[in-house]
Specification:
Helices cover about 30% and strands about 20% of the residues. The protein has about 475 residues and is α+β, with helices and mostly antiparallel strands. It folds into two domains: about 10-110, OB fold (Dihydrolipoamide Acetyltransferase, E2P) (Beta Barrel); about 125-170 and about 205-465, Bira Bifunctional Protein, Domain 2 (BirA Bifunctional Protein, domain 2). Bound molecules: adenosine-5'-triphosphate and manganese (II) ion. Manganese (II) ion (MN) binds next to loops.
């Protein structure tokens, strides 16, 4: 058996008493032919391995280079040096894998995030990405724990779908038809009956419609899976492939929906605050250092941890779209024509600069906007009594903008089909969806939380490409 080792994170919390320990990991640095900083990915903190002078031969010492992998056994003793509490006094040392430090791209110095994106296959070995991806893991775990504790059923909705009616974004086609000799109908359109599924299919943009089928049977479900959008938006918060969490609840109205979303966001933040304190502290320091290079007015008012604590301790501001438009219209920012898109009035879609103004300048806290104009929202959102708005809600977070989009769903068959007709969505395509309204329809609601945006919020990473292992964005699918 090979896998007998102590993880460095666990080891660093032990009292050094000369106990026999085996560790395995990768060399971060090696000084004076004596001191190895060894990292195994369980924490950013390295273990100092001390090699007694003369105990290991020259050849072995030469092979201890940055990123070489080692197995070391020895005694855990109190450190004589300052900077660390304990050392591993090496008795045996085995090089598991050599690493040519001449060509190894990660040197023990600060690299830019842009450079690290070019070597995304190795960037997990840096402190920043170590912390980001441990936090990402913890958030994902907390998501499941939250819904499991609440009795929700985890539902796997399909990745390949035939419905293109949802309208959440541009879709990627899934096909095995040849490009050069595409089978055609008489009118020149592609003959999808010869395609793999016998019809046109796409990668999903959202699991919501299928989620509603689950909710109207189990009561409460959630999905947590990849979604795809072929939108050509090269921003710091859009990916072509991202992960979304979509709870869907029967017997919920819009307010219940907002309450659940707030509780959920707090729960997962609290979880990482407890479990990943060290990583968050590292990321907070990283962010503070990064912001030092910005002009004063571009820096965050709160540190990362302070911000997360603030979210735990303060309710989100809730206001209607209509009130938000008034605030924006009356703002000095608008009067001084500082918005790129001026506030033209009720009915306009809000741009991210408007959302960020509300959150970062006006309220200085997360905001839930609700009751949006029907015209700018999806067909399935519940029509309000006023005949103009729908029971939609978006949650806007400081530094990110929209993090959640949700609504109470239109459960009334007649209202839903009338709206579909207005929006030219053929009923035949969604016959299965409409069945939920035919057979025991119930008030229900749900929302979608973009997981990467949540990870951005918690880690303070400004670019969404730095919180997913291998980002897919326009013109980029390396690795
Ligand atoms: P945006 O206006 O920011 O493009 P959206 O209105 O298209 O968002 P929804 O369709 O409501 O977003 O999707 C639900 C959630 O999924 C959003 O609140 C956001 O957190 C996330 N999301 C949407 N598009 C993307 C994307 N391209 N990359 C990463 N996350 C996304
Ligand atoms: Mn979008």
């Amino acid at each position: 058996m090979f896998n007998i080792r102590t993880r460095i994170k666990e080891l660093l919390s032990m009292e050094p008493q000369g106990q026999d320990i085996t560790v395995m990991g990768w060399v971060r640095t090696f000084r004076n032919n004596q001191f190895i900083a060894l990292n195994d990915g369980s924490t950013n903190n390295n273990l100092q391995v001390v090699l007694e002078l003369g105990k290991f031969d020259e050849d072995t010492l030469k092979r201890i280079t940055t990123s070489a992998s080692l197995k070391v056994s020895g005694k855990l003793v109190a450190s004589l040096g300052k900077g660390q509490k304990m050392d591993l006094q090496a008795e045996t040392l085995e090089i598991l894998g050599d690493s040519d430090s001449e060509v190894y791209p990660l040197q023990p110095k600060k690299h830019s995030l842009e450079f690290l994106r070019e070597i995304a296959h190795l960037r997990f070995r840096t402190n920043t990405f170590g912390s980001v991806f441990r936090v990402r893991h913890a958030l994902a775990f907390a998501v499941h724990q939250f819904f499991n504790e609440k009795g929700f059923v985890y539902m796997h909705t399909p990745i390949i779908t035939a419905s293109d009616a949802e309208g959440a974004g541009e879709m990627f086609k899934v096909t095995t038809l040849p490009f050069d000799q595409t089978p055609r109908n008489e009118d020149g359109t592609v003959n999808y009956s010869e395609d793999f599924f016998g019809r046109a299919t796409n990668l999903t943009v959202s699991g919501q419609l299928e989620g509603e089928l689950g909710a109207t049977a189990f009561g409460e479900i959630y999905t947590f899976g990849p979604t795809f959008r072929a939108e050509n938006s090269n921003t710091a918060r859009h990916l072509a492939e991202f992960w979304m969490i979509e709870p869907e609840m029967a017997f919920f109205d819009l307010e219940d929906n907002m309450n659940l979303a707030e509780e959920f966001i707090r729960y997962i933040i609290k979880y990482v605050m407890e479990k990943n304190r060290e990583d968050l502290e590292f990321l907070a320091q990283r962010l503070a250092d990064e912001e030092k290079q910005l002009p004063q007015d571009k820096r965050s008012e709160m540190g990362l941890i302070e911000k997360l604590e603030f979210v735990l301790n303060n309710n989100f501001e809730r206001l209607t779209y209509t009130d938000a438009i008034e605030i924006l219209r009356e703002s000095n920012h608008n009067k001084k024509k500082k918005f790129q898109y001026p506030i033209t009035g009720w009915g306009m879609d809000l741009q991210s600069e408007h959302e960020r103004y509300l959150v970062e300048k006006h309220f200085k806290k997360p905001v839930i906007l609700y009751n949006y104009p029907a015209a700018i929202k999806a067909f399935y959102m519940r029509q309000n009594e006023d005949g103009k708005t729908v029971a939609a809600m978006d949650i806007l977070a400081p530094g990110i903008g929209e993090i959640v989009g949700g609504s109470q769903r239109e459960e009334r068959f007649e209202n839903l089909t009338a709206r579909m007709k207005e929006m030219h969505i053929p009923e035949e395509e969604l016959w299965w969806y409409l069945d939920t309204r035919r057979f025991g329809t119930v008030p229900h609601a749900g929302f979608g939380l973009g997981f990467e945006r949540m990870v951005q919020f918690v880690t303070g990473m400004t670019n969404i490409r730095d919180v997913i292992a291998f980002p897919r964005t326009p013109k980029n699918a390396e690795f």
